[in-house]
What does this fold into?
Amino acid sequence: MKHTIIFLFLAAVVAFGSSGSIAGKVVDKRTGEPIGGANVLVQGTELGAATTLDGKYTVDGVEPGSYNVRFSVIGYKTIIENRVVVRPGKPTYLNVALEESFIKGEEVIVKPSFFEKTKDAVVSSKSMDFEEIITQPGGAWDVQRSVQALPAVVGATDQYNEIIVRGGNYGENLFILDNVEIGNPNHFSVPGSGGGPITMINTDFVENIDFYAGAFPAKYGDKASSVLDVRFREGADDALHYKFDVGMAGYGGTLEGPIGNGNFMLTGHRSFMSLIAGSFGLTAIPNYYSIQGKATYNLSSKQKLSLLGVYGRDWIYLGSEGDDSYAEAEESVQDEDIDMKTRQYAFGANLRSAFGKGFSVITFSRTEGIWELTMTDTLEEETYHYNTTEAENAAKLDITLFPFDRGEITIGGYLKNLELDYDLWSKPETLFIYDPETGEILDTTDYIYQWVSRETENSFKYGGYLQYKHGLGRFTLTGGLRYDYFKFTGNGYLSPRAGVTFALGKNTELNLAYGRHYQSPSWQELVSDTLSHSLESKYTDQIVVGIDHLFAEDVKGTVEGYYKLYNDVPVESSLTTPDPNDQIDAFVNAGKGYAYGIEFFLQKKVQKDLWGTLSYSYSIAKANDPRYPDKEFSWDFDYRNVFTSVVGYRKEYKNYDWYKDLSEKWWYRALGFVPLIPADESEYSFRYRYTGGKPYTPMTYHPEWRKWTLDETQEMNSARQTPYQTFDLHLQQRWYYNKWSLLVYWEIDNLFNNPNVWDYTYNSDGTKSTVYQRARMIVGGVVVEF
It folds into this structure.
């Protein structure tokens, strides 16, 4: 907080000053080759430029502010880049890939567009840039939370950023960072899942993201539902620049600039809850820090090398009694101490080479996650521990060829070495029989529970894909085939993919796609028991049909219908029998189900002031009851109705004379950071989210065992919680000064403090407690950029 006060004081004494610039490169979206002679226009000004033969451009003398920048050239679709923020005294780097027109001369009749279609995707895909991510209400500057405004996506819970897509489940989203696959890029992650409460990824590094909600291209594999492909921008080329920021993810800074024949970015962040724990009486303080970097080096005009590194560490201690390192609670609410620690890192290198009619990308990477969890009772005796290390060494090659006009061949292969060190142990526990009246122990059953598993494994995955894409008049056809093999299970699979896009008119497209997507069992499923070692990969067959229409250059609508079939889903063997006390640890491929639905999505980008999205989906997700294969039940994320509305309004007060006079007052500069006070640029947005009631299974209490069970006659997920509703507000303010800028944001999540139910806790005394999702929460942050 002390640093924030210093920054605001500086803001009060430094005058408005230097202009900035916009620079970058324009390339062909298909080939990656530079486009010379492209026109670059900063809308709302008379400033512009033309690209040189190597595709580069620079627009100087741009006053600080937010702009729309138009890129056009004959033979390509005109694109308008939205929310381009120009800061004082430094360049804003903006690289653009233009798509060829489908029909000769079409650039004359087709509307310019703010929307860029993701490469190779036929259906169910969306792109977002940095500014769209950070202005999402309820998004907390998190790339995974930001896509939850899309109609195909729901969150697992407010506390986590897990992505659940079209009736799917945990861990079904593929997360890619600069061509490197990362299992879970979050602090306090859980093995086998893809989410966490706090992201490790610094959003300031993000150039844009592509999200695929279904029937995705053959390039992507080993996930059943979706893909989130994140690309980092490159560092500044002109000079050293640095930032300081404080926000929900902690406090830290970023340094970037040129290095040799390239550039670099480096950032570090640390949690601050331990600094203020005493003020809030916290008994469990989440501690974490992360370091992240990227370096890019131009080896030649045809070759570029980029290096990526991400490291995160976190730890938390939940004590049954007060501890000297934590503030004591008035009374203990648990009878065990929990000590949890996690470390994760990812390193990768990409070499891109252009040649003749094509290019290649070679990627080497290593990722590792270490999870340590220990539980002890009030006598300081260990009752449970879970220690596991998962690592992956990977090499892959992607080659893209352009053998003839409008034809494209993509071929790739990969080899992965997987390492596992798994140690799970729990204290033996006997199931006692009690007298319901007196609580006296009468007897014991034959059930004695103990989890013991200790394995060290080293195995391989390998595979490849082939995809062909061709344009025929108004048609664009895509076909692909993928193969994946996992040595540990001895199973290999072929995955066909196909899609077609037809231009119905100038600004309307009809899209149809099919894809089969296999996902390997997690290590936790494979090593739970020796019987699980040969588990099959679960898979989905997905069919999607949709229509896109561009109503205006800044307004686009999409309607999609889908059918998604699940097969060979791993489930615990104990769930395949009616016996409520069955505790067999093995997994079997006994699960299957389906989901289908229709989705509507309307988006308006910022043309002048107003922007927003409107989405609605109706879906049904059901699974077969593994106890009784002829019965179905609603799957865990069968919400039925999901509605999300996001509305934002941006105002540039710096263009008004009354504001210019006001901004010179010392008292205004001192109070300018207060919410709702006009800034050089102010942006106000809200999100309303509604989802139908989540299914859950009412358990049955047995006083003779002091235990809740799923009885033989009890139907799974036979009840529903009350519908979920939340209203989130977001306020963002920007000021531009001489050589530096200041950004302040405030957010109120669940403004009306709606008591949204997440789950129920079944206590041993026969009572049931309600677990709620996030209550009203106010967060904010400050970013100072030089």
